[in-house]
Design the sequence.
């Protein structure tokens, strides 16, 4: 009768893998928070645009010492005071809502393409995440590296 070897790590054996849910737990929460921070940023941008007074901007331009300043800044004045001032904040708010939606889908292991696109949106520097790109980009990259693994992709429904 031979004695049983002691139980311990077997060298050369593959390490046990975590489930996709366990692997995506922290990155998806970070992505969710990043989307929420970006959404708050763009809500504040919309509020700022609503409170902006075009007359104050025009007066500030008139007070500039360079007489050509008004002429050079006229196109920017029209953009900053017209309806276009809401365009980028609304697009950013929508993109961050999509990032939040993708993070929720990722946590539920549903809609792999949606989760992947949301992670890509999060990696775009300062486009859809306002001032939060230092926080959002690492979360998006972490999610991308996990979402592109075959074993995780297969666990999505």
Sequence:
């Amino acid at each position: 009768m031979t004695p049983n070897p002691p139980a311990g790590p077997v060298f050369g054996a593959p390490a046990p893998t975590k489930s996709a849910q366990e692997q995506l737990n922290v990155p998806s929460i970070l992505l969710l928070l990043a989307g929420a921070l970006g959404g708050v940023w763009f809500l504040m941008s919309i509020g700022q645009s609503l409170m902006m007074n075009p007359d104050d901007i025009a007066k500030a331009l008139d007070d500039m010492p360079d007489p050509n300043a008004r002429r050079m800044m006229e196109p920017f004045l029209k953009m900053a005071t017209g309806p276009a001032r809401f365009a980028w904040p609304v697009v950013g708010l929508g993109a961050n809502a999509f990032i939040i939606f993708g993070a929720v889908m990722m946590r539920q292991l549903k809609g792999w393409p949606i989760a992947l696109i949301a992670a890509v949106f999060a990696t775009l520097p300062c486009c859809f995440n306002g001032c939060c790109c230092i926080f959002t980009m690492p979360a998006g990259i972490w999610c991308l590296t996990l979402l592109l693994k075959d074993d995780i992709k297969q666990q999505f429904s």
Observations:
- The helical segments are 20-51, 54-62, 69-81, 87-107, 112-123, 133-147, 150-154.
- Residues 21-50+86-154 form one domain.
- The chain is about 70% helix and 0% strand.
- The CA atoms of residues 96 and 146 lie 20 Å apart.
